[in-house]
Structures are given as C-alpha cells and as structure tokens.
Amino acid sequence: MRYIDLPKGIQTAAFAMGEGALNEAAAFMAEIFPGKKPWIIADDNTFAAAGAKVAEQLKANMYPPYIFPGTPRLHPDSAISDMLAEKISGMPDVVPVAVGSGVINDIVKRAAGVANIHYCCIPTACSVDGYTAAGSAMVNNGFKMTLTCPAPYAILADTDVLYTAPPAMFASGYADLFAKIPAGADWIIADALGIEKIDESIWELVQVPLRARLSDPTDFGPVFAGLADTGYSMQLYKESRPASGAEHLMSHIWEMEHLTFNGEDVSHGFKVAIGSVTATKLMEFIINTPLAEAKKLARPILSMEERSAEIDELLKKDCYGSGIKELALSKHETAPESRDKLFSVWETLQKKLPVQIIPSDEAVKMLKAAKSPAHFTEIGLEKEQYIHAIRTAQLIRKRYTVLDYLYSLGLLEAAIDYINA
Q1: Residue 359 confidence (pLDDT) above 90
Q2: What count of Cα atoms within 13 Å lies in the side-chain half-sphere of residue 315?
Q3: 40 strand-pairing partners
Q4: Nearest C-alpha neighbor of 391 from the set 318, 310, 330
Q5: Beta-sheet pairing, 63-68 with 94-100
Q6: Do residues 363 and 178 make contact, with C-beta atoms less than 8 angstroms apart?
Q7: For the chain, does the N or the C end have fewer beta carbons within 10 angstroms?
C-alpha cells in the first residue's frame, strides 16, 4: 500500500492504494481517524467484494455493518442518505466507511455531509469520477441533481479488488473519463464567448494527461488515476465544469426518464458514452459547416411566447425537476445582436475544437474497445427518445455547452439533422 500525492487545497486528506491494501485497513483507519469507530456501509455485492475483508480487519472496533440488498440495484436517493444521517447522529465517534462503487459512495457522502462528519471511501470498481469529488449526484424529491456535501476525507483502494470488478464497471469508468474530452470542448466554447474562462491549472490537471490515460482501453491504472484527478479538479474548482458538459446533461435526461435496458438501469458511464459521441458530432457540425452556410441554415429567432410553447412541449413528461422552464427562458435571447456575437466566434471555434475533440469515428472505436456502448440503440433508446434528449438537455442546467451555442444560433435542428444523416 502506498500513499498517493494529492493536490494542495482539496478536502481529501489521505489516499492509499495498492495490492492487498485492505489487509491494512485497521492501521489506515487508526492513523487517519484516531479514536473513531468505523461503520461499514455496503450492499450484498460490495460487502462480498471488499466489505467482509474490511470488517475482518477492524473486528470488534466498529459498529455493525449496514448492508443494503444487492438486488434490486440501489438508487442514489437523498431519502436514503437522510436515513443514514439520522442513524449517524446516534453513533458517538463514528466514521462512516462507504464500501462500494458510485451509488454507495454518493449515498454515504451525502449522509456524512448532512451529519457534518468526515467519511472514508473504499471503492470496489474503477467506474466513476465521483469517488474523489465533492457533491453527490442523487435523486431528490424525484428529480436528479447534484447535492452539496464534502468529498471523502480518506480513500483506501485495493487494486486486487478493483481489477476483479465486473468488466462492465470498468467500461463505464472508461466512458466517464472519455467524457472529459467533449466536456473540455464545451469549456473552450464558453471561454471563447467570455462566459466562463478556462482555469489553466485545472485544465492541466485533467486535460493534459487525458489522451495518454485513454490510449489503452484495457489498462485500469491510468483510467483510475484520471478519474481520481477529475474528482480533485471538481473539489478545487468547486463545481463540475472540469468534468461534465453536454454529454452529462443528456445522461441526466435519460436518468430522469428512468431509462432501462433489458430490465436493468443503464449505468451512468454508458449513458455518458452515448452523450459523448453525440456532443462530438455536434461539434463536428460546427467544424465542417462554413460560416456562410451556417448563417443560411439558422432558423429565425423565436419570441418569448414561441420559446415558452416549445419548452412546454419538450417538458411534457414532467420528470425533469422544478424551475426548469424559468431557467430555460432566462437563457433565451431575442435580440439579433446577441446572435451576431455568437457567430463572431464560429471560425475561431472551427480552429480550436478540432485540437480538443477526438473525431467521432475514432471515439466510437475507443469506446467499443473498452466494451462500452457507442450507439444509442445499445442502451435501449429509440431514436425519438434519443433526439428528444438532445433538444431537452439544453434546458436543464445553467452551464453553457455546445447545446446552448447551437440553439441560440438557431442551428440545433440543423445539427441534429447532420448527426442523424
């Protein structure tokens, strides 16, 4: 087991990783959480994968583990976190220990945040960037959102456990890391328009080593390191811009629509994989469409009344959260000069975006090599639901992405036609 060097200024104080690291769980907990009594939280599957070994190491110096059923699959719901937080309040000197992958970690992270105590994360799969991130992506009152809470104070990762996780979980993690490519391109668009300046230190942490870490879609080590660094970047930036863009917004739409495939929920990473390919193709529309042609393709600017009716139609499933229409209308510009400003950076983006993105045909090959889906039908989407998400994802968050850029130019429909030609 070795301690990983951490960036300065983050909430995580210790990260140990190595073969057989769980054999040193008791020493790690005593060093990082002196005088505290661990409480393992897992599900049947993750307890079998790692929790039982941790419990054996901790023996009598712990609260009895709390184990959720392994089936049906646990959902990240804030009500579960609130229940755990209430239990924590009755446990003196407790330190919650999340043993699991993304869902278990998010639930425990939020519970620890509500209870205002530190917690420890023991990951069981290389599946998400959320292990090292602040905030929990959860369902709250029926709607998916990121809830505020600190990052894990400590992380203990056993590579023997991570290597033996189901292959689909690594594929999901690879896809989540790949998403940082189009997410970076979204940040380039926002930066070019003066909306959100790129933070060079954060960019260097995530983007500079990213292509090397994605180069071998079978190599766990670089992918886990990339996911960890992405989590640190969100801690430092204090929000998720370094890690997510349009691809995650599309994923959120499908999650709120309760997308399933073959009777099971589609993983976060697999939804993001489809979003990444889609966002890349939208950017290729910008790259490959001359400015003069783009101006001809642009539809007229809608009035506020017309946009309001359009939003109502997109949100008629009524599963996307409160305040969405108001947010979407606040982003709608009716002045012609606002469109002129957007077009003024078109040719600049035609030069910058190709440097950032991985071409969509290559992206598909990389994702497939990692055993991740790359076409919307591979996660159970019908074409209508797929296209609906492209249109609707622009509504649900303030963060500026390629979806905002194309919509505001009156080009989103032309771009959808382009990617579905």
Answers
A1: yes
A2: 21
A3: 97
A4: 310
A5: unpaired
A6: yes
A7: C
